[in-house]
Design goal:
It contains 6 helices and 7 strands. Strands 1-5-4 form a 3-stranded mixed sheet, covered by helices on one side. The longest helix has 20 residues.
């Protein structure tokens, strides 16, 4: 196990805290038609059904949320400007009227897993706000809250994404990291929340390296 004793203690303490605040966690969510029946084409119109489902799962009112989208490379005077810094996959804030706003980066909309992980993270923000002021480790706790409410597969699988493509002259690749929790914490939390993960069908939906770490964490916890 590569998780540090400090991270293991943090994970165990906060999962216990989440259970005290919100009760027993639900079953893990899988990327299947049972949970996401609408076809997904990476369009803005495809996002609202996902937001509805995530809000229902985390028990947050979708009526209190305004959904927006933003471009990583803004269009100014008809010219696509180069982005000056890495922008987040999603942004949460409260507007002047006190409504919750979740804004998604248009560049990630084609990635079904990333979209769900981002929405789950932002909705988890809203869930935690019902308990009062944010904690010092708010973003880490927000990711853990999304995992607690069943979105561990999406949080885990979207932690690292590798893309490779080529044109007539070049072969290119990119590696992107999303989320806040170290992958060791994510996989440990999944194993801790689901004691039967070592022989559960849903582990086949995890990326191979993520599945391996969940299995190692399960063996460490329960052997």
């Amino acid at each position: 196990m590569s998780i540090t004793p400090e991270d293991r203690e943090w994970t165990e303490a906060n999962i216990l805290w989440l259970k005290e605040q919100f009760g027993q966690h639900p079953d893990i969510i899988t990327p299947t038609k049972d949970n996401f029946p609408s076809d997904f084409y990476g369009r803005e119109a495809d996002i609202k059904p996902i937001l509805d489902f995530v809000c229902k799962q985390i028990m947050v009112s979708v009526d209190d949320i305004e959904l927006q989208f933003f471009d990583a490379s803004p269009l100014i005077d008809g010219i696509r400007m180069e982005e000056e810094e890495d922008l987040p996959e999603g942004i949460y804030y409260q507007n002047d009227n006190g409504r919750h706003v979740i804004a998604l980066n248009n560049q990630q909309l084609a990635d079904f897993t990333s979209v769900i992980a981002t929405i789950a993270h932002e909705v988890a923000h809203i869930k935690l706000l019902t308990l009062g002021d944010p904690e010092e480790d708010e973003e880490y706790l927000t990711d853990l809250t999304a995992i607690y409410f069943g979105f561990g597969i999406f949080i885990g699988n979207s932690t690292f994404s590798f893309n490779q493509w080529q044109d007539e002259y070049h072969q290119k690749w990119s590696l992107k990291r999303t989320g806040y929790l170290p992958i060791e914490v994510t996989t440990y939390a999944i194993a801790l929340l689901y004691p039967n993960s070592s022989n559960s069908y849903w582990t086949d939906y995890l990326k191979k390296d993520i599945k391996k770490q969940v299995e190692q964490a399960h063996k460490f916890i329960y052997s």
